[in-house]
Amino acid sequence: MYFAYAQVGAEKGWGFMFRRVTTIASAAVAVAAFAGLGLGTANAQASCPDVHWIGAAGSGERTPAEVTQNGGMGRVVYRSLQDLSAEVAKDGRTLTAEAVEYPAVEVPGEDGGIGEWLGFMGSVDAGAAALGKQYEGFVQRCPASKVVLAGYSQGAMVVHRNLAALEASPNLAAVLLVADGDRLPEDPTYNMGTASGIPDRGKGVAQDWPILAHAPSPLSPAMGARTISVCNLGDAVCDYDEDADDSTAAYAQRVSVHTNYAKTSSLPWTSPLYFMLGGPAPQTPEAQPIVPLSASVPTP
User: Quick one: DSSP state of residue 174?
Assistant: First the structure.
C-alpha cells in the first residue's frame, strides 16, 4: 500500500500506543536511513535550479516499488511536486527535486510492542536528521536557489521538526504539510482542509502526547507565513481524538480520510505554493471539502 495507514489496525495502533506505551518517553533509537532514489537530485545538476523540492514520504512509502513509481517521496508528495512543477515551468523557471532518504517505516499495528514503536519514532528522528543534512548540502551548493519542503503524514512530521531551525534560512520559500502528526491548529500557517478554523479540531496525534513524541513547539509568524498545513476532519493523524469511537467501522472511516488526499483532479494547495514562489495570488481560499474523484493518480 502507498499510504501511512495501509490497514485499519495500523490506525488503531496510534491510539493504542499513545495510551499505553508511556514508558518509552524520551527514548532515543538510532535508525539507519535507507538509500533512496531522488528525482533529478541536486548532485546530478550541471547548474543550480531556480527552485528545488525536497519531499518526505509517509509511513511505508519508501519501498522499492514506491521509490520507482513516486520518486521515493510517496504518492501525495510526488503528485504535489508534479502539479507545482507544471506551474513553475510556465514562467520559464527550472525545478529539481529529491526525496528525503530515511526509513519511513510503517505504523505498527494494534499489537505492536515497545520495540516497534521505538523503531517508528526513531524513523521520524532519522528522517528529520536526514532532511536537515540534505537541505544544508543543497543550499551550500546552490545558495541562490529557492527551496520547497513537502511531507505527508510521517513525512510531514519529518519536515515540521526542521522548521524552527530553518526559519532564518533565506532559501526556504515554501513548506507543504499534509496530514501532519505534529499539527497545531493555532499555528499561524495557511490552513487548508475541512478541519481548518473549527475549534478543538485539527491537532496532530504527536501534539496530544508531546512528552512521548517530543512534538515541536508552535511556529513563529515568520515561519507560519511560508507554511501550508492541510488537514481534513476525522483524519486519524492530523485530527486525532483519543476519545473517538473505537469501533472497526469508525476506525476505517478515519483511515479513509487520512489516505484520501491528492485524489482530486486538481490540488487546492498548488496555487498558494506557487504564490509563495513568486507566482500570482490564489484566486479564492479553499472553501469546500476535498472530494475524491478516483483512486488513480496520473503519472508523467
Answer: E
Which of 6, 19, 3, 4 shows the shortest CA–CA distance to 244?
A: 19
Q: How far apart, in whole angstroms, are the C-alpha atoms of residue 171 and residue 145?
A: 6
Burial of 196 (C-beta count, 10 Å sphere; 0-12/13-18/19+): buried
pLDDT, tens only, 9-39: 444 444 444 343 333 333 332 222 222 333 4
How many beta carbons lie within 10 A of that of residue 119, not counting itself?
18
How far is the C-alpha of 154 from the C-alpha of 55, rounded, in Å? 12
pTM of this prediction? 0.79
Task: Report the C-alpha gap between 292 and 215 in whole angstroms.
Answer: 30
Q: Name 220's Cβ contacts closer than 8 Å, sequence gap at least 6.
A: 164, 167, 188
Query: Which domains, ranges and CATH numbers included, belong to the chain?
Result: 8-276 (3.40.50.1820)
